[in-house]
Design brief:
It contains nine helices and 17 strands. With 305 residues, it is α/β, with parallel strands linked by helices. The chain has one domain: 3-Layer(aba) Sandwich (UDP-N-acetylmuramoyl-L-alanine:D-glutamate ligase), CATH 3.40.1190. The longest helix has 15 residues. The radius of gyration is 18 Å and the shape is globular.
Length: 305
């Protein structure tokens, strides 16, 4: 049995960073960042994903060398891998442009033999349906969701915008919910992040997290709210994948029966290391993550709402 299975597309990213004339081509997507973060912390990880015939063999080799099980990866030779162009600006804003999209992940891609203590569902380009998310509940006692790809809509030029979902009843099968501040507001149609989290938790979700960049994270569980400050990075080079690393570390620690507040600090610390590098690098083990998480935990603030 695996500790964590991540479901979603791998991505081939082209990254433009402010102040740099170079374009970086890197491996991306939640199966990359979430899996590697969890693996580095000692979790046994696998993925359910689809890529095209253009997916470099060197990435398959590298992921296996890193300890990521790829038995649930399907290669569609006649298709392209999901690919994004990410253009970052000073201040943290970015443009996300879809260049190509792999085939959707379907019920046939779920193997009954793939069991896990937790499954993290994280679409990036509408590749996962709500029906599939509900089916996943039979695979695991814990389902985590980052809804980013459920909300994204792409125009003819591939430029991304967010769209509200009218029916959120599928959230009843979710245990852990993690989203960015912008995405949770778009998902729920609420202008306040606390109201958005309240809406999410009204479906019975045990733990809800909204990440807010330099402001830290807002966490809610057991009808309480906590403000978790960000971890201090030595330098911020590339924020791509930070949210995926956050949740990979969070779930790994959560499976150790840790307090969700501490798990959030661990997630923030793990993410703070990866953004110090470009691409899927900079992953740290438990000791270094805990050392950076401890001062965050001491500064967390319980909110009176």
């Amino acid at each position: 049995m695996f500790d964590i299975i991540t479901i979603g597309h791998f991505a081939l990213d082209r990254i433009f960073l402010p102040g740099s004339p170079r374009t970086r081509k890197t491996l991306g997507g939640p199966p990359t960042y979430t899996s590697l973060a969890a693996k580095k912390m000692g979790a046994k990880v696998s993925v359910i994903s689809k890529v095209g015939g253009d997916f470099p063999a060197k990435y398959v080799k590298w992921l296996r060398e890193q300890g990521v099980d790829l038995s649930g990866l399907k290669i569609s030779e006649d298709s392209q891998t999901t690919s994004f162009m990410l253009k970052y600006y000073h201040g943290g804003e970015r443009d996300l442009i879809l260049r190509s999209r792999a085939p959707p992940i379907s019920a046939e891609d779920l193997s009954p033999s793939m069991k896990a203590r937790a499954v993290h569902v994280s679409p990036i380009a509408n590749e996962i349906s709500v029906d599939l998310i509900e089916m996943v509940s039979s695979m695991t006692p814990i389902i985590s969701l980052d809804p980013q790809g459920l909300l994204r809509r792409f125009n003819d030029d591939g430029k991304m915008s967010l769209q509200k979902m009218d029916d959120l009843s599928f959230l009843r099968c979710i245990n852990i919910f993690k989203s960015s501040e912008k995405e949770i507001k778009a998902l729920t149609g609420r202008e306040s992040v606390t109201e958005a989290i309240d809406k999410i938790r009204s479906y019975g979700i045990e733990v809800a997290i909204a990440t807010m960049g330099e402001k830290g994270s807002l966490l809610s569980f057991s009808n309480k709210f906590y403000m978790v400050p960000p971890a201090k990075s030595k330098i911020i080079l590339d924020p791509t994948g930070a949210g995926d690393v956050f949740i990979g570390a969070f779930i790994t620690e959560y499976l150790r029966n840790a307090d969700p507040l501490w798990c959030t600090c661990v997630g923030a610390a793990a993410a703070s290391f990866v953004i110090e590098k470009i691409g899927p690098k900079g992953f740290r083990g438990n000791r270094e993550i805990y050392r950076r998480a401890a001062p965050i935990y001491e500064k967390t603030l319980k909110l009176q709402l």
